[in-house]
Amino acid sequence: MTSSTDTDADTASPAVSAGYGELRAELATLTTEAFRPELADIDRLPTREIARIMNGEDSTVPAAVADKLPQISAAIDATAARMARGGRLVYAGAGTAGRLGVLDASECPPTFNTDPSEVVGLIAGGPGAMVKAVEGAEDSRELAAADLDALALTENDTVVGISASGRTPYAIGAVEHARALGALTIGLSCNADSALAAAAEHGLEVVVGPELLTGSTRLKAGTAQKLVLNMISTITMIRLGKTYGNLMVDVRASNEKLRARSRRIVSLATGASDQEIEAALAATDGEVKNAILTILGQVDGPTAATLLSESDGHLRAALAAVHTT
């Protein structure tokens, strides 16, 4: 009996077979796709032993990220400079990489009170691809260009192409199109000498080695990408004045937990009494940063808003302005 795989191979055209042969050969050269014979019997091991091996694999990821800190830092500084001029941060990827970008973007509004349009996650195939694969979407550079054109990209924007393999056409196409438009470009991959890094102004290649499950880049590669994306968004927001020390003073109090956190942040920043905190938040329509400024700077709500506006939202600068007037 002929298997379905054999049938597909027999009926495929020579051109198609050759195309898949080339792709197979390309994948064989990628570290993220490498087969590890020492793990060939992992399915026979006790669960605890598999967990121990997996945990050991994961522990190597931070060191791989640490090796790229100079390049990551340079990319962040460049991103923050563009966003300070009104630019946006746009992530573009397919599959796991795209989902990680969408996740990071979606966390910015509640954490840093950014508008949803300021940090954007694009995934090949659109929002539906977050939960279900969209066939062929990741292979289209044109789709990436169209997705970026829908955002009316400018030279103040930053586009981060994300691809564990570093060869995904959607991610590469996004970076190439963005760079042609004058936007800042970052290519985040987990293979050395990747096409994605070569296409970007800032190439970040965090090489974590072969995966526990051959080619399953949702594992170490996904963890590495998540760590780097955490750095890009968080440190950029720190540079933009979205924090005061390590306090999230731009947090959006959209539920009871966040409202309680807002009051705790004001307390930690000022040492004020509960009564003072409630009065400050009432005078500033619940804006944490403004409330802190009214207490520490001993100004009213409208004055706090003016000072923060003149300081581009940087609380330390606004406080300095109070103390020098």
UniProtKB/TrEMBL annotation:
The active site is at E107, E138. It catalyses: N-acetyl-D-muramate 6-phosphate + H2O = N-acetyl-D-glucosamine 6-phosphate + (R)-lactate. This is N-acetylmuramic acid 6-phosphate etherase. The keyword Transport does not apply. The gene is murQ. It is an enzyme of class 4 (lyase). One of its GO terms (molecular function) is ether hydrolase activity. A lyase-type mechanism (elimination/hydration) is suggested for the cleavage of the lactyl ether bond of MurNAc 6-phosphate, with the formation of an alpha,beta-unsaturated aldehyde intermediate with (E)-stereochemistry, followed by the syn addition of water to give product. PROSITE patterns: GCKR (PS01272), SIS (PS51464). Pathway: Cell wall biogenesis; Amino-sugar metabolism; N-acetylmuramate degradation; Amino-sugar metabolism; 1,6-anhydro-N-acetylmuramate degradation. The keyword Glycoprotein does not apply. Pfam families: GKRP_SIS_N. Its EC number is 4.2.1.126. Specifically catalyzes the cleavage of the D-lactyl ether substituent of MurNAc 6-phosphate, producing GlcNAc 6-phosphate and D-lactate. InterPro entries: Etherase_MurQ (IPR005488), Glucokinase_regulatory_CS (IPR005486), MURQ/GCKR (IPR040190), SIS_dom (IPR001347), SIS_dom_sf (IPR046348). Belongs to the GCKR-like family. MurNAc-6-P etherase subfamily. Homodimer. Residues 79-242 form the SIS domain. Keywords: Carbohydrate metabolism, Lyase. One of its GO terms (biological process) is N-acetylmuramic acid catabolic process.
